[in-house]
Amino acid sequence: MELRRSRGARVLALVCVLGGVLLLVYPSDGALLRTIIAVGAIALGAVALVSALRPFRFGIHADGLTIRRPGLRRDIRWADVGVLVLDEPPRRDGRPEPPRLLLVPAPGVPLEPVTARHPIDGRPAIELLVLDQVREQPDQVSAALTRYAGGRFVDLLALRRAAFDTPDLPVGLRGYHMDRVDRLIRRGQDALMSGDAATRQAARGEIERASAAGLPIAQRGYHTLQTDTVLDALVAALADQQSTDRETAT
Question: Is the pTM of this model over 0.85?
Answer without folding.
Answer: no
